[in-house]
Amino acid sequence: MSPPCQPYTRIGLQHGSQDPRSKSFLHLLKVLDTMQHPPSYILVENVKGFETSDSRDMLVDQLQKSNYTFQEFLLTPSKAIGIPNSRLRYYLLAKLKPLPFAYTTTASDDSILDFIPYLSKHTHYCEKQVDALVNYLDPNADQEEYAVPDKVLLKNGYVFDIVTPSSLHSCCFTKGYYHYAQGTGSILQMNEAVNAQAIFEKVQTIDEKDTSLRLELLHSLKLRYFTPREVANLMGFPANFQFPPTATRKQQYRTLGNSINVKLVSHLMHYLIMQPSCIDQ
């Protein structure tokens, strides 16, 4: 389950269960209470902030009432699975008793894990061994097609989160990427031989009316947007994933911004169905 995130997001009003958009989720909780054959496994995903909401409390209460055991997580791909992207999300896994979890928490019942238990035993999933962005880039991406427009460079370039192919991180991509400049995802600097901070500092010393010289400096960075394919790569989508031919670029970015990290969730699903005897294998 992935309830609407707007009632819980940090930039929203955070009305929780009082927000009309949470009604569908609350309805599912009522349905769970009446099911003769409830599901053996449940996975819930939402934004960070859900864990402190009254909706979370209602979810946990209903799960306990319906004879489930559960574990909660706050996970981001960079730390959990080594993908260089920040997308911190809340997850809850639940199992119908007597099904056991492969990993038993030793802290209080309210503890929230920041790792996937069975992956923590594998050294290649380590925060210190995050992949470089270059491994997720499309070598055939058109620089001109995805270049940041001059108007946006001059007006909003100072608020960009700029990364390079060798960077080990990128910001969370939202549905506003490619449309809004700040807080919607990282911008890629293809020319790693140039220092972006030095360029922007130099641009500030140039008269605003001299746009040609300012743009000449900014163009030296070769700033571009991540392509939808590259964002999909960072979201863990398989290489054969494709959008329908009718999907516009804006629709592709919006869909990805509203999506989940597929690879991270697949690991959670694998852990959810694991037996205790498998955790050390």
Automatic annotation (TrEMBL):
Q: Which GO terms describe its cellular component?
A: nucleus
GO process annotations (BP): methylation
Protein name per UniProt: tRNA (cytosine(38)-C(5))-methyltransferase
Lineage, broadest ranks: Eukaryota, Fungi, Fungi incertae sedis, Mucoromycota, Mucoromycotina
Concerning InterPro entries, the annotation shows: C5-MTase (IPR050750), C5_MeTfrase (IPR001525), C5_meth_CS (IPR031303), SAM-dependent_MTases_sf (IPR029063)
Q: What class of enzyme is it?
A: transferase
Q: Does the keyword Nucleotide-binding apply?
A: no
Family stated for the protein in its record: Belongs to the class I-like SAM-binding methyltransferase superfamily. C5-methyltransferase family.
